[in-house]
Structure formats: C-alpha cells, structure tokens
Amino acid sequence: FYTPKKVIDSMYQTLSDMGFKNGNILEPSMGIGNFIGNLPDEMSRSKFYGIELDSVSGRIGKLLYQESNIQIKG
C-alpha cells in the first residue's frame, strides 16, 4: 500500500495549520518515499529520515532522495 497523494497533501496541510515550517521528519515504512517527493516548498528546509524494510523500495528511495537519511532495515 502506498499512501495516496491526497492523503499526503492533507497531512502536510494539517502540519502547516499547526505552524510547522521545517524540522526533522521521520517516514517509517516509507516505500519509495512519496512523503519526501510531495513535500511542500515552504517545508523544503526540513531534514528527512526514512526507514523501509523492502530492499527494492528502499534502494529506489535512496536513489530518488539522496539528500535524505534512508535506512533499509526492520
């Protein structure tokens, strides 16, 4: 299951409404990194940390988002 963009956008909107501008973001069970890829511009200074169990998805995420700290493990 990959989180739909509509859900991701709603979660980021909620964070924005709560005053979040930038910081550390953990994405557990990240898949290929849809949360990283859909980060709003106004939060672009945030630092991402991702964890993925599946090695194929994790390696894709590492290639797509090399500036993020992504680990492939359980």
What do you see in this structure?
The chain is α/β, with parallel strands linked by helices and 74 residues long. Helices cover 36% and strands 20% of the residues. It has three helices and three strands; from the N terminus they run αβαβαβ. The chain has helices spanning 5-17, 34-37, 55-64; strands at residues 24-28, 47-52, 69-72. Strands 1-2-3 form a three-stranded parallel sheet, covered by helices on one side. Helix 2 (34-37) links the parallel strand 1 and strand 2 (47-52). The longest helix is centred in the N-terminal third of the chain and has 13 residues, at 5-17. The protein is globular, with a radius of gyration of 12 Å. The chain starts with a helix and ends with a strand.
Write a compact overview of the structure shown.
Helix content is 36%, strand content 20%. The protein has 74 residues and is of the alpha/beta class. The longest helix has 13 residues, at 5-17.
Give short descriptive properties of this protein.
3 strands; three-stranded parallel beta sheet; globular; 74 residues; alpha/beta
Shape: globular
Q: What is the H-and-E element order?
A: HEHEHE
Strand content: 15-25%
**Radius of gyration based on Cα positions:** 12 Å
Q: For the record, give the distance between the C-alpha atoms at the N and C termini, rounded to a whole number.
A: 17 Å
Number of β-strand runs: 3
Q: Give the structural class.
A: alpha/beta
Instruction: Give me the number of helical elements.
Output: 3
Which regions are unreliable across 5 or more consecutive residues at pLDDT < 50? none
The spatial strand order of the largest sheet comes to 1-2-3
Helicity, in percent? 25-40%
Mean pLDDT: 96
Main sheet makeup: 3 strands, parallel
